Structure formats: structure tokens, C-alpha cells
Amino acid sequence: MVQNKAIYVRVVSTDISAYYCLFQEIYDKQKELILLGERVVLVTLGFDLNIHHAYRPLVEAIRRFNIDNKSPLAQVAWNFVNDGYANATLAVFFFF
To answer: What does pTM read for this prediction?
Structure first.
């Protein structure tokens, strides 16, 4: 359950860092509430989007085989992954 709370700030000093921390905390909470609301709307509409990017396994493979990032093999691998994303078609299915 989401609780709405009013926050009142009384300015009593010129310490900007304290205010920044307070407003950053408020911003982070509001951001999380918005993201949660977006997820609720998408789930309600039956929208499911799950993308597995190939960059992480590629970086792990390059590190595992001790390949230099600037080597031709690494560049060809990056190009292959990038071209795969550029040419991929997105199919959206609605299940009712």
C-alpha cells in the first residue's frame, strides 16, 4: 500500500548539502512510485517485454579468453551483436 505524505521544509540554514540530500531522497521515492505505477499499467494491459541483451555474455567471453578489446576479433563480435539488434524485428502479441 502506498502512503502519501506531505513534506514541509523549513529553511533555517544555508547548508545546501542537507537540502540536496533531503530532496534527493524525495526524488528517489517519487521515481520509484512512478516506475511501480508504470509496471502496474503494463501488467494490467497484458504487456510483457523481456529483452536479453547479448552484450554481457560477449564481454564475459572476451574477458574469459583474454582478448584485447581493440583486437579485430572483438570488433567483429561487437559488430555482429550490434547488427543483430539493428535488423531484429519486434513482434508484439496480444493475448486476450
So the answer is: 0.41
